[in-house]
Amino acid sequence: MCTVVIRHLPGEPVRALALRDELTGRDFDDPGAWWPDQPTAVGGRDRQAGGTWCASDVVTGTTAFVLNRPQRREAEPGAPSRGVLPLLALQYGEAWPQHLDCRGMASFALLLATPKHLALWVFDGATLTREGLPPGTHMVTSGGAEDGKAERYLGALQGGDVGTWRALLQQHPPEPDPASLVVRLERDGRTYATVFGQLITSAPGHLELEWSRQPWHADGWTSRRWP
Q1: Alpha-carbon distance 209 to 196, whole Å?
Q2: Model confidence pLDDT, tens digit, residues 17-26
Q3: Are 183 and 194 in contact (CB under 8 A)?
């Protein structure tokens, strides 16, 4: 995951836009209940590591997102994949760091949205820090050049609903600029691009998802509700 826009306001469902930027050859599955030991967790599944970049719990109304960060790009041998993080956060809530040794992992940002709280953890390869975020609309990115996305787009994203957010995506086709909302870059003979876009509306007992593998197009979106 490389960009998350989240609206977290008291008394309202959590609403989010999540964009996954990845190598185009890395296979993944669309959102579903892929994890038998967490049957109420719904998210896309990375086929290489088996984890996820974003998952929601239908019962609790909690959603967790993981974003790569640039400080340590490669994990040490034997270290956990970052894809385990959203599932751990759904299972244990704010206590998830007690159930994972981050040492050796590639750096990351983990955003956890419960119906009452919004929190962000950042691991720079050495230290894990936590920040509570106030009510409102926030953007979290993978850092570095991508931080320019907030200046460009957050103002437009702060108003409107998820339908407005989807319409904004259609105004911005892929560009070879890390600060673009939707990207497509060539690196060392491989293509790195926005491969998935997801709109989330979540509350306890209710989850509504819309997703597309080409989110800059008006068609090709899938919608589903749980339960």
Answers
A1: 13
A2: 999 999 999 9
A3: yes
As a whole number of angstroms, the distance between CA 184 and CA 160 comes to 27
- Could you tell me if 43 and 34 are in contact, meaning their C-beta atoms sit under 8 angstroms apart? yes
Domains detected in the chain: 3-226 (3.60.60.10)
Instruction: Quickly state the pLDDT bin for 94 (edges 50, 70, 90).
Output: very high
- Render pLDDT for 134-184 as a digit per residue (tens, 0 to 9): 999 999 999 887 889 999 999 999 977 888 999 999 999 999 999 999 999
Ramachandran class of 208: left when φ > 0, alpha when ψ lies in -120 to 50, beta otherwise: beta
Tracing tokens 């998952």 back to the chain, one arrives at: 55
What tokens appear for 4 in the block?
């998350």
30-50 pLDDT, tens digit per residue, is 999 999 999 999 999 999 989
